[in-house]
Amino acid sequence: MKHADFIIVGQGIAGTLLAHFLEAAGKSVFVIDHYSPNAASQVAAGIINPITGRRYVKSWRVDDLIPFAVRTYRQLEAQLNIPIFHERNIIRTLFNQGEENDWLARTGDPAYTPYMLDQPVLDQYATKTVLAYSYGEVTQSGQTDLVRLTGAYRKYLKSKGALLEDHFDYSLLTLTPEQATYKNVVSASQLIFAEGHLGTQNPYFNYLPFGGAKGEVLIVRIPGADFEKILKHRVFIVPLADSGLYWIGSTYDWKFDDDQPTSRGRDYLEQRLKDVLSLPFDVVEHRAAVRPTVKDRRPFLGQHPEFPALAIFNGLGTKGASLGPYWAHHLAAHLVNGNELDEAVDIGRFAKQ
């Protein structure tokens, strides 16, 4: 049987980043994960967007989260020898005078100046999309290649013999106050669940108010587009680096039966794209996944109130690319050094029923 300092269940963006920071702290890690093409990290575009919503507000703690995320992805690029993070401004459509006035008012606020332009540069979008009333442009934004990151980190774990590719069976987990042992294969002083939406099935943490939002996306080819920025115009059009393809999304379904693509979702996205583009396009792939969401829109971090050998890192939702690095580092510091968890993310904010 192998022994590690930490076992991590799940190797999406949450599990990958947590493993990275635990190893950076000098700890050994063993990961248990069954690959699924419908996992959220395999479907998401990895957009980092500091300005969100109809009121054009700064995302939560964005002044800290984005610089930390970019530094982390650059570190991982160097470690894994792959490109991961691509700086891309976001062109955002404004549909009427009121929206334009609201945007311009924000650009006059010193707290927003680093993230917003009042004079956007449309580039190729000016001639290859249906023009809207007006536009704004978001800076310090970008796209993170989560598929490439998690795939490369998976190979890294395999090369070290630190990955078990298997569905996790909770009945085969043995706990003592000081240790977690799985399947007589691996033991550790701490096991962290980073399962994404599958956390709803976790018998140890299913008391937490998990949500879930199913999203469907298209991967398309747009001959002659040559778009470099991200466009938010009813849907997101996101260039996928070095591929000539674009990520189109996403739908949001709060009620769903499974994580499979639907004809309704495809029709919706295709029609929205036709409304935006003045160029033809070809659908290369149609994907779907369930995002792990939380009632109060804050991640789940912390140790189980009754089983100290168990912990959780979950609930990154739609902003996993920007939230993940900062909070993975935060949890690693708590588990390794005993640093106090931020109350906003500590699962202690939810009393166990």
From TrEMBL:
Which Gene Ontology terms of cellular component type are present? cytoplasm
The record's listing under InterPro entries reads: FAD-dep_OxRdtase, FAD/NAD-bd_sf
Q: Which organism is it from?
A: Phaeodactylibacter xiamenensis
The highest taxon in the source lineage is: Bacteria
What region holds the FAD dependent oxidoreductase domain? 5-333
Can you name this protein? Answer: FAD dependent oxidoreductase domain-containing protein
